[in-house]
Prior knowledge:
Chain A is α+β, with helices and mostly antiparallel strands. Chain A is built from 20 helices and 39 strands. Chain A has 5 domains: about 5-80, Roll (Ubiquitin-like (UB roll)); about 105-210, 2-Layer Sandwich (Alpha-Beta Plaits); about 225-285 and about 330-410, Sandwich (Jelly Rolls); about 415-540, Jelly Rolls; about 545-720, no CATH class.
Amino acid sequence: MSAGPMIDLTVDGKKVSVPAGTSVFDAARLNNIAIPTLCHQQNEKPVGVCRVCVVDVGARVFTASCVRPAEPGMVVSTNSERVKQARKTLVELLMTDHVSPCARERQSGDCELEALAKQNNLAHSRFAPQATRRGVDDSSMSIGVDFDACILCDRCIRGCDEIRENFVLGRMGKGETTRIAFDNNVPMGESSCVSCGECMVSCPTGALTNKVINQTAIAAPGSEPVSLEELNELPFFEGVSGTFLSLNRNAVVRRRFKRGEVICREGEYGSTAFYILEGEARVSIASPIAHVKTKGAVKRFLGKLSSRLTQRQSDVRDDETDQHWIHIDAPMDLSYENPVATLKAGDLFGEMTCMSLYPRSATVRAETDCTMLELLRNVLDIMQRNKNFRAQLDHSYRQRALDSHLRAVPIFAELTDEFIAGLRDKVELLRFSPGQVICRQGDHADSFYLVRIGFVKVSQTHLGGDMVLAYLSRGDYFGETGLLNGDVRTATCSALDHVEVVRISAADFAEMNRQFPEVRHQLELVERERTQMNRERLTALSSTPLDSFLKQGLMEAQSLLLLDLDSCTRCDACVRACADAHDGVTRLVREGLRFDHYLVATSCRQCLDPLCMVGCPVGSIRRRNSLEVIIEDWCIGCGLCADNCPYGNINMHPFNVFADVPGSSGKKKAVVKQKATSCDLCSEFAEPSCVYACPHDAAHRVNPRQFFAGLLQQSADKSLKD
Amino acid sequence: MLIDATHRKWLIASLIILVAATFIYVAYAASSPAGPSGGSATGLTFGIVGFGFMIFAGLLAARKKVAIWRLGRAQTWLRGHLWLGLLSLPMIFFHAGFQFGGVLTRVLMILLILVVASGLFGAALQHYLPRLMTSEVPMETIFEQIDHVREQLVTEADGLVNGVCGPSPTEQIALSGGAVAIATSAPAAALPLREFYNRQLRPFLQHQHLPGSGSGSGLAKRDDSSRIFDGLRTVLPSDAHDATRKLEEICEEERQLRRQVRMHHWLHSWLLLHVPLSLALLLLGCIHAIMALRY
């Protein structure tokens, strides 16, 4: 309000004097006369869209007081019966565009529109509610959007544009389908919204509300609440809406840990992330780095077979990779030989657990006395969208983790320090919400991606539907095929959960290939392998056109344990042999789907689309190049793969190991740890024990497509003869 | 085990051995003035070969105990057991010159015949029954799980009937803490279902003998059961038909489980005869061999 010449007018019979240019609404407000309104807020530019602030200024029609400038000698009536009736009708009409009670009314009973309706005794509207439903948007972690509760007052749009200058919100559509929209009409969670909360606190109704998540408070012992003032003093909370922090104040707490105290343990489920304020913490994997191995009888002819934990060095697999890094849910990876690292002040860990509720990937113990912030995912999501916090994390990643992340990928091991230093400022860190497409089949290939957090689904669209080619996790990469061929994307890559990728531009990728011919050579080999594999898969898929075969998901399998029920006497020799071969714990159950006279036993199918791999917090369940699913030594026994397997084919195998006794230095005690196990095809023998031990020639390990294609051919030949 | 074309090699080898042994035996019998004898070199050879075959056949049980030792595929052992065990009979006949001899040898011969006969019976069962079970019992489950599956079926059936008729009077009393007896609240039209369930279906699922039901419940046979359920549907309201159809399916599953139990017993119970007789045969065979060689 400028201090210009004063003008006099009358409001509700009261002489008032206000500076020229003042709106009628403000003229009344400054003189303690309240005019109801919905679309107008003092900190936003008035737009007069709701018209609830109508007043009578003696003109032909009533006017919206928020946008009408006061004039000298104007006589304003804000409260006459005619004005009240007009306002009542307006509220009644607005209520037809608003679901009642809305989320805000249900949560806190302070929906401004519904309060006005109550004041006007509008329990029921005379008008029919709007027939067109505009729906909800549940994609944001922290803000719920109910378009049906929106009255298009534009307070959120002005809050986003004028107050925060984020320019994310706008309007879309026409007529009764008009609604607010994020960016170019994408879901809020996928938009460039930084979750500052301004739109939510601006909204007069329940159209934009603070999301009530399952766990809104951290109840860890010793946690200290952090006041709003304290949070605002922390530099990385700069720019976050105070109101929003206030609404979520229990979702962030301060935790203090004494030296040696365990902050989180591998395999445990949690829903929080930690941000180190002070001190250092040691991150390590406490589970034995070994895989479950059954010692064969070849060397010990009369010896009893038993399963035990065997280290990689003493049991080198045929196609052992040269992977020397274990990917964990922290800024760095762990070395296979010595899986220990140090986290410092400014580091954030536990992001995947917090955002996607995966088990903890490693054990973190305070190296010195530590102070940390423990965050629930609604707060972490806001932080991740906060420019300052992102910049700090990005900087930390570029300085400390990019190097090890790139080197953890075997084919990039030979990149020089100079080249990586050059990349540091060029790479982009991008975040994607669950379901969001990172790159689409057929698009121009312009980047190479390295997965930093989360799981990426790679799929190809063919006639008849999509085919999943792979699931990629931290340390994996994609996008090389299109770049190497100078062509378009050959597959669609989308985020399965909360994903972060490192994006390397086509120009930097080309430069890398120019400088390091060996890297290019390796990438080309990988690209050829992947292309060939996809082609074979597609051929196999298209050559097996049997409905029930597809319905039973058998096309997803690479190797099935089939029992020919016409020969099987149900003697269970196969089950006993499997148990004998695996320390008394069978890895197969003689029950499952039937296909013709074959029983598909419950035993690992080596699926083409291995859902078991999705979510492994340390990436220990993976594929060899032969597509065989194996469980690597650094399995932490969280059991997620067993839960994820749709066929119940992964078991948890308990083992006694010696672990430190908490609080006593050097003392150890036996504790039971678990390792995931699945059918290993008795790989040290020529054929699986179940097949070998079947006296009736009923058990067979087969490639399902070849096997069933043969059956179909026989069946077709037979019917032709008949 | 299916005895099919894959047994051809064993069949041919066994026939060659049989023909050769028969030829040798005929020549030997013709050239022995006193007739064939188990104590002669040829007779003894037949005895050793026949007993060797028996021992090999008997080792199958031991082989099964160490199923994962790589001592040859179990399938090969079973085929050897089948064909060599069968061949042991003519070998022992040639060894004995088709004479039964004294008490021990007579017992041995009878045992051998019984063992071979029971083995052939078992092989025939294992050839035919798996196919029959596959076609007749599509809802087959793991044998050891059958009791558990039956409990589930009863629970499911209880739920279906209660869904239509309301809780049974006993359950109502239990629900009300036993303090007051509440009259049944079942809709009158659904009462025939409750009555049928309590009198016929539940006892059938629980394997209770029904008084006056003769050899068993009418639900034990598919056709009879179908007639009973068709009749039931005619007196029930249409909204109870879906539950009735599900009860009929449960009834069918129970019948299949019964069939599976019967077939499973046939598939494996012959071993209760075959195995002890085989052990006795081997034991007495050893005694006979020691006595014959010593005396």
